[in-house]
Amino acid sequence: MDPQGFRQTFGRLKAEIQKVIVGYEALIEEVLTALIAGGHVLLEGVPGLGKTLLVKTLAQALDLRYSRIQFTPDLMPADIIGTNVVMQDEEGRRFFEFQRGPIFSQIVLADEINRATPKTQSALLEAMQEHAVTAAGVHYPLEEPFFVLATQNPIEMEGTYPLPEAQVDRFLFKLRVPFPALDDLVKIMERTTGPEMPAAQPVASGASILAMQALAREVAVATHVKDYVARLIRATHPEAEGAASQARRFVRYGASPRGALALLLAAKVRALLQERANVSFEDLRAVALPALRHRVILNFEGEAEGIDPDDIVRNVLEETPELVRVRR
Amino acid sequence: MTPVPRYALRLLRRAARALAWNRARLWAVRGLTVTAAVSTAWTLAGAVIPLPLPPWHLLVAGLAVCLLTGLVRGLLPAGGLLYAAQVADVELRLRERLSTALELATGRLRPTALAGEVLRDAEARARDALPGMRLRLGWPSGTRRALVAVGLATLAAVILPGFTLPATPARETAVRIKREGQRLQRVAGNLEQRARAERAPQARRLAPEVRGLAEELQRQRLDRRGALARIAALERRLEAARRQLGRRIGEAINTQTPEAASQSLFRPSAALEQTIRELRELAARLSQVPEGEGREDLLRHLGELARAAEAQMPAQARRALEEARRRTEAGDADAGQRALAQAIAEMDALRALVADESVLRMAEQELERSALSIARGAGPEPSVEAQQGEVQAPPPGSVARRLPEQEEEASIPPPPRGPDEGSTPGQGTLGEKLGPQTPRLDAPGERSRVVGQEGEGQLLTTELLGPGRRVPARAPLVRLSPQAVRRADEHMAAARIPAALREVVRRYFLLLAERR
């Protein structure tokens, strides 16, 4: 695949999803960016905003196997991964056979992930990290591309198990699903209350997604741009030299090295979409919020003051110079 | 490694050149700030201690150095294409295309499948950006601060010099300058008085300048260096005038013999006065005793006078005196009297010149004393005796304050004792060369000058004490090689010779040269 084909495929996917999903153009772009960067997405928004529909539509447009897991407090890891069951053959001999769980798909919707217990959450998160599961000592690789979209409700905290920081870190992006604008709301009503429900058609295959992922990794990154990424990450750490002022005050733990990878991979995808074969500072700034907002852990003061991690990331971007050698 | 695309390279070189000038401006601005700070500190220090250099000299020199350094830095070959690429990317909004392409081309980045795409993209963008390309680097951030600092330093250098804090060396020096101004004003008054009394036209012309300098020293807030410079300027003028007078005196005397010339160097004005008085007395006697034994005595007296005053008498006066003696001897008393009157007139003119020179020398010495006093700066005031010119030996064990030149002289080791000491090596010790001391005349001092207007009142004639016994010089006069003369000239130019003695030393060497 060449950059031209990359952009065309991306455009087709986006257009196909937009046939079903009204508005959310930036959100769709970010979801697709995470998919091509090879990461997973945590969608955060109140119920009824179309998160599930977005994921289903994506699966339809991609012609990939899709499964949905509704996380509940009684959900067990085996319900996600699968389990060995006793089977009997024609001759009456019994044996164990691994019954694959819903994780064995290419696009997995983990709905309301914060409602399951940490044990179950970690079963999913392990699969997200390794792209494989292990059951009864047997290693089962997951089919590529493997893409998990988890949703959580930020308001309802009763009976939930918030994801631990180490597990949140495994999501490439944390995307906030906003309430639709007035015009978009009207269009949603028009589309969904009519006699025919719009449906997306497959426009890209799993192979083309893999090719896009490979091409994105070929995007060149200049040394000083990598240096900027490293300085951005360090600036989120309160104790680090060059830390941003708000990070020093309100942050308990800054972004991990995985944050730097997420930032750079997403920026590479964006560079290709911007008709460039190199990453620029602008790309990094554009993907910094979704890539870093869930990796900045606020301290007590930050929580008490109601500080939004997005403000911390913006402050980091403001206070970190692009070229440290430029002196005027 | 692949070559950097043509347009991209051209753009990078242009950007590197712009950066070099920007760096030059940065250097200049930093230099200006430092210069302004140093100059201001120097100016403020001037309120406490006397400064050897005016603040504005320092400021101007610093500014010149900063601008020169900036210029040189700007003209030096610009390096660092990578940094230029990074800056050009930011300034021309090229989205890091140039720097990435450069790193790929130079092998700093591992080549990827999209490397060719990056290079092509960078080349295309560079071609579009090159026409009218201008990096808006602007002036360094501290420029305004530096200009304000330079402005303040300039103001300080103009306004503050002369302000001194109480009880500091600078204040003591300022007080000393004012005191010397007052002293020079008195000297100027004396100078005018003497110039009038002794009919010294040059001295009369230059006396107002001495007074002007004295007023300037008292009125203006002068620092030590400024005061010394003004004194030195006037000293030079006085010296030039005195040298001119010396030349005229030399021409008038027109000496033939070196002995006579060496005596004439010291201008024994008192002896000159005595000769004139004796000539007048002779002229009076010539009109009264024209015949007989009296005339013989008069002729003998005339002859003795002509011989004795040969070295300090103008040639025309000598001729007139000879003419007077011859005419008187021939019996023509009237013609002899006329010739004698002419000789007296010539001698009067010479006396006026000598008096003029003497007054100027006195003024020069006073200026030098003022200069020395100001140069000495803070410290105890010299005693009244020292101010009157009497040098007092420092008490044993005390360390006298010396000028730097004096320190240098003191550091020169004394000549070796024994036969090689003195000016004639191998001929005994210094004591032997000098011979026995001349006897000192143990007599009370007498006033050598009569107060009042010349030509009015009663003529007063007193016996004057002559110099000590004349003894032949022990150091033989020898021909000097041109090399020695040249070295003497060099030493004359380099060594510090008191103003009052410069002319004497110069003429001494000139006479030596004439003898060669």
Question: What key phrases describe this protein's structure?
Answer:
heterodimer, A: 328 residues, alpha/beta, 5-stranded parallel beta sheet, two-stranded antiparallel sheet, 14 helices, 46% helix, globular, B: 516 residues, mainly alpha, elongated
Q: How would you characterize this protein structure?
A:
- The complex is a heterodimer of chains A (328) and B (516).
- Chain A has helices at residues 3-20, 25-37, 51-62, 77-81, 118-130, 165-168, 182-192, 206-216, 223-235, 245-250, 257-273, 281-292, 300-305, 309-319; strands at 41-44, 66-70, 82-88, 94-100, 107-111, 132-135, 138-141, 147-152, 173-176, 251-253, 297-298.
- With 328 residues, chain A is of the alpha/beta class.
- In chain A, the strands form four sheets. In chain A, strands 2-5-8-1-9 form a five-stranded parallel β-sheet.
- In chain A, strand 6 (132-135) and strand 7 (138-141) form a beta hairpin.
- The mean pLDDT of chain A is 88.
- Chain B starts with 5 loop residues before the first helix and ends with a helix.
- Helix content of chain B is 66%, strand content 0%.
- With 516 residues, chain B is an all-alpha fold.
- The longest helix of chain B is centred in the last third of the chain and has 44 residues, at 333-376.
- Chain B has helices spanning 6-45, 55-75, 81-91, 97-106, 115-129, 143-159, 169-197, 201-219, 224-253, 258-264, 269-288, 292-308, 315-329, 333-376, 384-387, 404-411, 430-434, 482-494, 499-515.
- Chain A binds chain B through residues 3, 215, 218-225, 274, 276-282, 322-323, 325-328, and chain B through 22, 26, 83, 86-87, 89-90, 95-97, 99-101, 103-104, 108-109, 112-115, 117-118, 121, 137-141.
